[in-house]
Specification:
Elements: E1 27-30, E2 38-43, E3 54-60, E4 65-69, E5 75-82, E6 85-89, E7 92-96, E8 101-104, E9 110-114, E10 120-127, H1 131-138, E11 140-141, H2 158-163, H3 170-179
Antiparallel strand pairs: 1-2, 1-11, 2-3, 3-10, 4-9, 5-8, 5-10, 6-7, 6-9
Length: 180
Amino acid sequence: MNARNPLGADHAPAGPTFVAVQPGQARSFWQPVPASGYTTVMLSGGQTVSGNVSMGTQTVAVGGFVREHAHPAQEELIYVVAGSGTALIQDVEHPMVPGALFYFGPNTRHKFVNTGTTPLTFTWIMLPAGLEKFFESIGRTRTEGEAAPPPFPRPADVDAIELGTVFADLDVLKAAQAKK
């Protein structure tokens, strides 16, 4: 044991034990239709001791939505900070207003729709990490303060990107849930 690591050298952290991200320092990506807005990745798996948590914000444009999806092995927290919308969770609608919190365990189907007149912004936390890789793969690099680009389509290989990151095959999941 030592003062720096009381568990001893055999239990040294795999990554940094402290991360500070100041405004404008995080990676940010414009998102394609149908969400259209942008996401900012405040913390990615490679920045943490375990490598198993990522966190960021997503802003969904007026009239935009996050398609229905589920995560096969991840837990996700959503905390609404601005705007208003509807969360469709396992086919049940829930209001999305500032201060609302949603927890999704593995394979919980969910969709977010901006039904308001201003952008809908929420914080997301994903365990284990990986959502940030999806946003980077389908988005375009965003610089703080720049004007939004014209709407752009999702990549042609978005299904492969989803299955290669943190997304369940929704058709398979729905079929399995229908059998229950």
